Amino acid sequence: MTERLPAEDRTEDDSVVLDGKGLSVHRVNEIAREPAVIRPAAAALELTRRSWETAVRVSSRQAVYGRTTGVGGNRETAVSDGVQQDLRLLRSHATGSGPRLPDRVVRAAIVIRTNQILNGGSGMHPDIIDGLVAAVASQNLPTVHARGAIGTGDLSAFSEIAMGLIGESPLRDGRTGVSWIPHHGDALPFISTNAMTVAIAGDTSIDVARWLQHCLVVSVLSVLASRSSVEPFAAQVQSARMHFGQAEVAERVRDLLAPHDITPVRVQDSFGFRALPQILGATWQAVHRLQNTLSIEMNSSSENPLVSVEDDMVFHNGNFHAMPIALAVDEAKLAVASAALLSQCRLANLSDPAVTGLRAFLADGPDGSSGTMLLEYTTSAAIAEIRSSAAPGSLGHTVISRGTEDHASFASQAATQLADILTQSRLVLACELISAVRALSQQQRELDPATELGAYLARARLVLDARTEDRPLSADLSAAVNFLSQPLDQ
Q1: Crossing angle, helix 452-463 and helix 195-225, to 10 degrees?
Q2: Sequence-ordered list of residues with C-beta below 8 angstroms from that of 47, at least 6 positions apart, any chain
Q3: What CATH number does the domain containing 185 carry?
Q4: Which of 139, 140, 133 is nearest to 110 (CA)?
Q5: Domain limits at 431?
Q6: Closest CA to 221 of 431, 390, 53, 71
Q7: Which of 172, 147, 202, 155 is nearest to 26 (CA)?
Q8: Whole-angstrom Cα distance, residue 264 to residue 203?
């Protein structure tokens, strides 16, 4: 799931070229980790200039929403005071709430918005590109709050970015500075985007993919500890039902298990093991579909109105509506929730003497010792949180702005819910990891550290407390969650 920027996207001075077309979730993630030097492709910048000229020309002969009229419920109100209307729009819409978003997410959103503007449909003056490029290269970004959007454009977030760029709101360090001066008609197209929601969902999807990588390896440790059958992972089984992703998961399981001896003790195991390829395969595909959907949005013109240079026209439209994003995020939420439930199923098996050949709850010490008993409570509490967050955000509904905006996707809420699900899913998987490592130790099962699975087990043992007597497991949970948050090979 890792992807580095192709050589053609970087220049000799190590700057990143944006052309309005070539972004992906992984590219944005790499660019946005730290301040970066980006520059627009010459052809894309020229298209942006022509888009602005077209918008000015068209608005001189007809009404254009947000340029010659107010917005929302004020769409029929004519405005004629030039850039002052733009400034009022930005000031009034810079109304966010909740926690501040981290720099990497704000930077990612600015990179995405820059690329979208270079796509040529915004009608903004090309000066905005200089301001956005300067922001991406800076350590001192605008302050943006996490709440305020409803999946019909990240209006508050990008208004807050605009206020930072024009020097009317403090940046992260409390200072102000001017890096952009808006032109008449710039305000609405700048904020007519879902780039912040895309940035949040994309950032989370990278972490979800990492969690899935860990989930597969931890599940294989549980296969060993539970003495499960390997028949469900056979290539013949996968070729009999060719859903994309299922065969890849099963092949990965076979590769991890290949160097190790396995002696199954049952004809057939619970779904937590037997349906692993089917469920994790489907989850992988949901994450891929989400990232593909986000990539489409990064390289699109989502402005209303859309400026068409070729036709010398503007088209009032609904491209700002984020339903494709909301549905993709909702699918990913449900898929990750199901994968987390499967981890909880395997944990229950690891607590069962009939499955492991060990004492109940992997206890050690006097009779009646509780061992890992409370991990089942922990996972049940986490699953309850997951279940709540997995409810589709796209089922939301609202009517606002005097009835002119009578539907919303709530994609931004769905993206936040996906992050919440990931937090709880890490906790669930941490419980399984602790139990699998303990079970293998009590079975005196050693894996060759020269193998991938053996090396993973060795790293896990380094961060977990080896003591097996009854004791608090909170520190182990924290260590395991941190372990599962890191790249697979670290």
Answers
A1: 100
A2: 20, 118, 119, 120, 309
A3: 1.10.275.10
A4: 133
A5: 204-290+331-394+411-485
A6: 431
A7: 202
A8: 40
User: What are the backbone dihedrals phi and psi of residue 109, each rounded to the nearest 5 degrees, phi first?
Assistant: -65, -40
Q: Read off the amino acid at residue 107.
A: R
Residue 9: what pLDDT?
A: 54
Complete DSSP assignment for 259-313: TS-----SSS--HHHHTHHHHHHHHHHHHHHHHHHHHHHHTS---SSEEETTTTE
Cβ within 8 Å of residue 395, ≥6 positions away: none
CATH of the domain at 373: 1.20.200.10
CA neighbor of 298 nearest in space, from 317, 315, 322: 322
CA–centroid distance for 314 within its chain: 33
Q: Is residue 421 a part of any domain in this protein?
A: yes
3-state secondary structure of 45: helix
Helical H segments across 175-275, by residue range: 187-191, 195-225, 235-239, 246-257, 271-274
Distance of alpha carbon 349 from alpha carbon 223, whole angstroms: 10
pTM for the model stands at: 0.93
**Cβ proximity of 238 and 277 under 8 Å:** yes
Residues 370 and 248 in one domain: yes
What would the two tokens of residue 367 be? 């009779």
User: Do 231 and 150 sit in the same domain of this protein?
Assistant: no
| In a domain? residue 490 | no
| Residue 431 maps to a domain | yes
**CB-based contacts of 394: which residues, under 8 Å, 6+ apart?**
151, 323, 326, 327, 330, 409, 410, 411, 414
Q: Which residues of the chain have pLDDT under 50?
A: 1-8, 10, 12
Token pair, residue 481, equals 């969650």
As for how many domains the chain has, the answer is 2
